[in-house]
Amino acid sequence: MLQISTGIKGLDRILCGGFIAGSSVLIEGSPGCGKTTLGVQIIVEGILSGEPGMILTFEQFPEQIYRDAARFGWDLRAMEQENRLRVICTSPQVISDQLLQPSGPIYQLIERLGIKRILIDSFTHFQRITVEETSLRELMFSMINSLKRMGLTVIFTKEISLKGVAGFEEYLVDTIITLSYQETPTEGRRRLIEVLKSRGHEHLPGKHGFRFASDGLQVFPRQAPVLPEFQLFQGVLKTGIEGLDDLLGNGIPLGSNVLLCGPAGVGKTTLSLQTINNVLQDSSRKAILFLHEESPEHIFERAESYGWNFRELAAKGQLIVSYEDFARVDIEEYLYRFNELMQTHSPSIVVVDTLPTLMHTVSHDLRLVTEKIARLTRIIKYHGCNSFLISPSLYGSNQIGRFGVEESLCDGVIILGTESIQGSRKRYIEVYKLRNQKHVTGRYRMEITEEGIRIFYVK
Amino acid sequence: MNLIEDRVQQLLDSIGSSVVQSSLVVFFYRNPGAFDTTEGLARWVGINKYEVEPALEELNKTGIVKKMGNDLFTIYTYSPEESVLEIMDELVAQLTAMPAYSKEVDNGQRG
């Protein structure tokens, strides 16, 4: 059994490798959800990997298909000139007739060009021939068998049935992909893709986000809730901050997620930046900074004010900065890309600044927040990385994290705050929790100096 | 007038006066993968099939479209002969510039 790539990385992952070569695929969805674009992309990606393709269109003018494809950088006309593609506009009646003629022009063309993938857009138009379901079913069955006999992978699009019951098409094909929308309170409409069936191979169940990027559809599979069993990492990551590693019991155990909380202006970001700077003094190490409030430029300037040259670290590729406006974050897409970045760079430490802003789009639902933070922390742990997840707390609140769930999901909690001592406000730090490590308890004075953070604790 | 101009003019004289033929030529030129019956092509260009049928017959005679199949099921496809293919750019440019085409034809085929 040969699985062929769809050419869309995320979709291949959902399909656990791609389609089976020579199988039939149904892409269904409501108008405007991207059925034709997905179908065309699968054809184009096939062509780019050496599998010539054919597009049969019953309603959309080829000229429109060429134009829409050009938006994604696919030059279909050039592919046709190179005999790697044919876009044919025709009627269902013609295709139905051609099926009875294995020596007919369409089949001759398929053979002559060595077509391997064919898109039929859309099967719904066969209702022009008959609306009688038994006849339509027979027609589709013959068409699939006829094209499969020639070794083609057949992709049908279909306008979605509003009846809420499976159409006969769904029983005949090997794979079903459904495209849909979801209304969300904060993000507007999210595009979703779901594989409902994949005969002969596994697939990741559930709905996954996708969007139209400049080079076609990008699919963001939801990571399985439980990642493969991760190992326990031996050793610690030293922050290099005077007094802090001693408070932590010699450093932070590898693979730990540490929640860094406290009200605004107490030094949470500074402590994170200083740790990154210290860790990256070892040129073999990397760090990723995920920003959702302050811009990278602002952060670079702030680091520079302490003498930490983040621009140089970024230029050397040791520091990777990812900035995304929190109001636009699609958390599923984010987690997918987060995992990709972790895989690509294998950082020693990541900082998320801040956790509540990252969770903004799901903050209306505590169950979602819990699930997303749990997945985020598991991804970090899976990669054996350490993290600081920054979470500003509200003044006067007894709650540690903003949501009340993050402290139990994280391995460690460091609280930064201020207290009034003899009429003057002083900063303090407290290691509130640190799993698998004997740490020092209690509050200790902390100052932010010109060189960074200094903690007044002597072992 | 050179040979190409001469040939374009000849075709313009026979096709240009018919909005139906002009529409079909432009449609086939812009969608060269078209492969359909009279009824199907009538739908693509948005013109009554009874007007499309004789127009296709004429275009078949000029060598711009090719007729396939039999009396029961006839398919037309864009298959200009070499001598016609080399003048299609110019022919379509002139056809689409003609007032009869631009005023009367707007059936979506121009994308």
Mean pLDDT of chain A: 89
Q: Which whole number gives the mean pLDDT of chain B? A: 83
- Radius of gyration of chain A (CA) equals 28 Å
**Estimated share of beta-strand residues of chain A:** 25-35%
Our measurement of the CA-to-CA distance between the termini of chain A, rounded to an integer number of angstroms, reads 64 Å
Based on secondary structure, the structural category of chain A is alpha/beta
Any idea what the CATH superfamily of chain B is called? Winged helix-like DNA-binding domain superfamily/Winged helix DNA-binding domain
Helix run count of chain A: 16
Largest sheet of chain A: 9 strands, mixed
Number of strands of chain A: 22
Instruction: Please give the alpha-carbon distance between the first and last residues of chain B.
Output: 33 Å
Strand content of chain B: 5-15%
The largest sheet of chain A has its strands arranged as 5-4-6-7-3-8-9-10-11
How many H/I helices of chain B?
A: 7
| General shape of chain A | elongated
What does this structure look like?
The complex is a heterodimer of chains A (459) and B (111). Chain A has helices spanning 9-14, 35-48, 62-70, 76-81, 92-98, 105-113, 133-149, 168-172, 244-247, 268-279, 296-305, 310-315, 331-345, 355-358, 366-382, 406-409; strands spanning 3-4, 19-20, 24-29, 53-57, 85-89, 117-121, 153-159, 175-184, 188-198, 207-213, 216-220, 236-237, 252-253, 257-262, 287-291, 319-323, 349-353, 386-392, 412-421, 424-434, 443-449, 452-455. With 459 residues, chain A is α/β, with parallel strands linked by helices. In chain A, the strands form four sheets. In chain A, strands 5-4-6-7-3-8-9-10-11 form a nine-stranded mixed beta sheet, with helices on both faces. In chain A, strand 9 and strand 10 form a beta hairpin. Chain B has one domain: Arc Repressor Mutant, subunit A, CATH 1.10.10. A three-stranded antiparallel beta sheet of chain B has the order 1-3-2. In chain B, strand 2 and strand 3 form a beta hairpin. The longest helix of chain B has 14 residues, at 49-62. The radius of gyration of chain B is 13 Å and the shape is globular. The A-B interface holds A 61-64, 67, 80, 86-91, 93-94, 97, 105-106 and B 30-37, 39-40, 43-44, 68, 73, 75, 77, 108-111.
